[in-house]
């Protein structure tokens, strides 16, 4: 446990724990809405924010937060209004954000693509004290939203149309989800990097739902997987001198594969138990389709 | 209809893309009435229902809910909505209880989910005979059981008006009976119902009035066409020899 003696490792581990909690906490709503790649898009846009930080000699964490929040709002607006050309608009936003980042960082005095690499793939030794403060504040916001509004966000993500009829402010909640995802991207940026952030939002959730039947349990297990892989990935990268982002993502995918292998016999056992518990004659398995077409020719 | 109507549509027009789907629909549902909206695929019946709950923008006409223009209507706890089953599927597993609980949000809004709310969820599940599956994943249910869960989700807020889009489509016979029984209890308690149906089927005895749409216009508004004898059996394929030749409805498949 000698790594705890170093202050930079203490900071890195604290950041890792917060990333491990927040990324799956937001990601579960994105997966539920079938927008698993939203985080990836925000990660691209955030590069412009990092470049802007270098150019203005400001903290890249805060400029990246500002730019990615704007990007997330723009993406949500495109989803509302740009039905037909939406994907093309999103493509331009993503690659524009990436190109903007590379351009700005090269314009910055003394800046080069080498500075960008630590933001793209994560780096432990560069997590500064002010970064940790920013990460704590942003993570608190993410947790407040994802836990405090879990029922509302669940309803909107499960069935948007129905949520609207319950009178929930669906648009505001969608915007809030996008903004929270954007904030999470910048929380995770220093540890796993912008290009790998999305994996930590999506893969722990996908791994957890191999075992679960309920949303609440999926949430808890996904966060547990998230914290496990970020902490163990961070420690591994300290001893082996490998990039933390790549280590964490590969560990997450490993967890997914392991749980999937574990889940197959579990599912078989559950199915057998359900079959045994079912009284015979219950037509749960075969639904009889109603003849379609009779209403077409109502004679009046 | 002595009191003001629960739902009132006047001259409602709506387009999907450039295609007119509703072309001047007038429809009024009084308190306690059970009205079935019938018509072929593409006749506009789903669009009509979705315009009432604010999912389809109008290009003309007015809609009132409980005497309030829909745009300023906020009292959504009075409305229970059952969408077509296909629209309600998330990418993460969720239990029956979790899905039904989200229907209670029209009452709790951003407040705390209290014991009374949990009790309402349990009661709604009992109404549709799904209390024993409360902790199961909705993905493990059959089509009919899933539909029962969606109805429980609408009932959990104890609404005065139920709006249902094809509640019987793809539902097994056992679930059809449960649904018909649940609906009968609701109607007896005074709930107003507007539902899209493909055929009257087992709900026929409950229905006070049928509105038939064709090409976005109201073709018929009055007593439901009664099926007799063998025609009344569920699954019976209606063939109407008296229908004029060439009256084959347009089946674009764009709407369902």
Automatic annotation (TrEMBL), chain A:
UniProt keyword Transport, yes or no: yes
Segments crossing the lipid bilayer: 12-30, 62-81, 88-112, 132-150, 162-181, 187-208, 215-239, 245-267
Membrane-topology annotation of the record: Multi-pass membrane protein
Alphabetized Pfam families for the sequence: ABC-3
Sorted UniProt keywords: Membrane, Transmembrane, Transmembrane helix, Transport
Recorded GO CC terms: ATP-binding cassette (ABC) transporter complex
Keyword RNA-binding included in the entry's annotation: no
InterPro entries: ABC_BtuC-like (IPR037294), ABC_TroCD (IPR001626)
Compartments where found: Cell membrane; Membrane
Domain of life: Bacteria
One Gene Ontology biological process: transmembrane transport
Parts forming coiled coils: none
Family: Belongs to the ABC-3 integral membrane protein family.
Protein name in UniProt: Metal ABC transporter permease
TrEMBL record, chain B:
SMART domains: AAA
Renumbered residue ranges of the record's region Disordered: 234-256
GO molecular function, one term: ATP binding
PROSITE patterns found in the cross-reference section: ABC_TRANSPORTER_2 (PS50893)
Pfam family membership, one: ABC_tran
Record keywords, A-Z: ATP-binding, Nucleotide-binding, Transport
Highest taxon, organism lineage: Bacteria
Domain ABC transporter: 7-240
Designated name of the protein: Metal ABC transporter ATP-binding protein
């Amino acid at each position: 446990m000698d790594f705890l003696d170093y202050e930079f490792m203490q900071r890195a581990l604290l950041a890792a724990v917060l990333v491990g909690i927040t990324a799956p906490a937001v990601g579960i709503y994105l997966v539920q809405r079938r927008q698993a790649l939203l985080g990836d898009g925000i990660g691209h846009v955030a590069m412009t924010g990092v470049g802007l930080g270098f150019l203005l000699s400001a903290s890249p964490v805060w400029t990246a937060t500002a730019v990615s929040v704007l990007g997330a709002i723009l993406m949500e607006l495109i989803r509302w209004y740009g039905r037909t050309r939406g994907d093309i608009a999103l493509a331009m936003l993503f690659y524009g954000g990436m190109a903007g980042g590379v351009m700005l960082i090269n314009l910055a005095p003394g800046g080069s693509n080498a500075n960008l690499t630590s933001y793209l793939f994560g780096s432990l030794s560069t997590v500064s004290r002010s970064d940790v403060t920013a990460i704590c504040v942003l993570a608190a916001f993410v947790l407040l939203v994802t836990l405090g509004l879990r029922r509302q966000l669940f309803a909107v993500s499960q069935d948007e149309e129905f949520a609207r009829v319950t009178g929930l402010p669906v648009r505001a909640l969608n915007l809030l989800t996008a903004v929270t995802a954007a904030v999470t991207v910048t929380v995770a940026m220093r540890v796993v990097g912008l290009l790998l952030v999305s994996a930590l939002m999506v893969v722990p959730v996908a791994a957890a739902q191999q075992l679960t039947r309920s949303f609440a349990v999926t949430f808890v297990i996904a966060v547990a997987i998230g914290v496990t892989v970020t902490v163990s990935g961070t420690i591994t990268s300290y001893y082996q001198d490998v990039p933390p982002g790549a280590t964490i993502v590969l560990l997450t995918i490993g967890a997914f594969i392991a749980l999937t292998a574990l889940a197959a016999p579990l599912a078989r056992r559950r199915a057998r138990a359900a079959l045994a518990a079912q009284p015979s004659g219950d037509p749960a398995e075969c639904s009889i389709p109603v003849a379609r077409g009779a209403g077409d020719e109502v004679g009046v | 209809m002595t009191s003001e109507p629960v739902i009132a549509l006047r001259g409602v027009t709506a387009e999907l893309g450039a295609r007119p789907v509703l072309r001047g629909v007038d429809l009024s549902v009084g308190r306690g009435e059970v009205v079935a909206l019938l018509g072929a695929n593409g006749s506009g019946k789903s669009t009509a229902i979705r315009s009432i709950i604010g999912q389809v923008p109008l290009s003309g006409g007015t809609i009132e809910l409980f005497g309030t223009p829909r745009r300023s209507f906020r009292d959504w706890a009075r409305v229970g909505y059952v969408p077509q089953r296909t629209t309600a599927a998330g990418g993460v597993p969720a239990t029956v209880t979790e899905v039904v609980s989200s229907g209670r949000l029209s009452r709790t809004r951003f407040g705390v989910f209290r014991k009374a709310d949990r009790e309402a969820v349990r009661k709604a599940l009992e109404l549709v005979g799904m209390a024993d599956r409360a902790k199961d994943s909705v993905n493990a249910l059959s089509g009919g059981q899933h539909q029962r869960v969606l109805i429980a989700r609408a009932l959990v807020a104890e609404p005065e008006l139920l709006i249902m889009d094809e509640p019987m489509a793809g539902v097994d016979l056992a679930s059809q009976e449960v649904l018909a029984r649940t609906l009968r209890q609701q109607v007896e308690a005074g709930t107003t119902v507007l539902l899209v149906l493909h055929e009257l089927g087992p709900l026929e005895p409950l229905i006070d009035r049928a509105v038939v749409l064709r090409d976005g216009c109201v073709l018929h508004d009055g007593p439901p066409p009664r099926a007799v004898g063998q025609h009344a059996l569920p699954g019976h394929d209606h063939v109407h020899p008296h229908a004029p030749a060439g009256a084959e409805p347009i089946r674009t498949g764009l709407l369902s």
